[in-house]
Specification:
The protein is an alpha/beta fold. It is built from nine helices and 15 strands.
Amino acid sequence: MMRAAVLEAPGRIAITQVEKPEPAPGEIRIRVEGCGVCASNLEPWAGQEWMSYPGEAGGLGHEAWGMVDAVGEGVDAFSPGDRVAALSYRAFAEYDIASAGMAIRLPAALDSQPFPGEPLGCAFNIFRRSDIQPGQTVAIIGIGFLGAVLTKLATDAGARVIAISRRRRSLELAKGYGAAEVIVMDDHWRIIEDVKALTGEAMCERVIECVGKQWPLDLAGELTGFGGRLVVAGYHQDGPRQVSMQMWNWKGIDVINAHERDPRVQMQGLREAVDAVAGGRLDPTALYTHRYPLERLSEALDATRDKPGNFVKALVTFG
């Protein structure tokens, strides 16, 4: 048996005992060391009309890392004892199952370090889709985990990053990851004027929206310069959006939805993230600000919503 979290109803988590899953052919079972809490968990946590309750045991958890403890028939790439990050989907539990093709062995350089592979890989895929070039001005709207990592990647690529976020602590974090300029996200028109002043009214060659709400998307369009690229990295799952097609048409901008569903592309980002962190090019340690045991998953979700103090990302850890 194992412990697993079940979303029983909006705002209510139960920790239950369920049978350990068994790996089918081509699968591995992971004894979960930890799992990141994603902002996409918040809509199910709050309750949406498209949700049904109760959820699956371990459901919502998709940012796991841990130790392989069993392999299914035909799996040669992994053995029990291998430490891995995986793209799996029921990881708010002591054990989870992943396809062997959706896991990567973690090198010794990452021993004892948390490694929520899914969001790290997502950041690298968004960065690739953004096509950031040296000398460009890049506005990043929303400095949480994703925005901070993208700030570092864009800065290292030779871009001038303008970080825009509501919380001053987030802007300080962005500076630490290389942002050249920071702007408090509090007034739509003032932000536009500030970016005009910083760019000689040319605006930005690249704008990455990392919030997943209507206003930041509106703002992103305004900040994108003629012929620029607007990259939608925020997860917009709480309803339809309206966009200013007149403005987008007039500016001739490219609009990129940077969410990847091709498993090969997802794994490409994950491999790049492992190489970057293991090689010391990216240190995400400062972004893992809050840790909770499984029994306090409700608190982790509330913190992800409310962002107390220096909050950036919560991890649920085991053992």
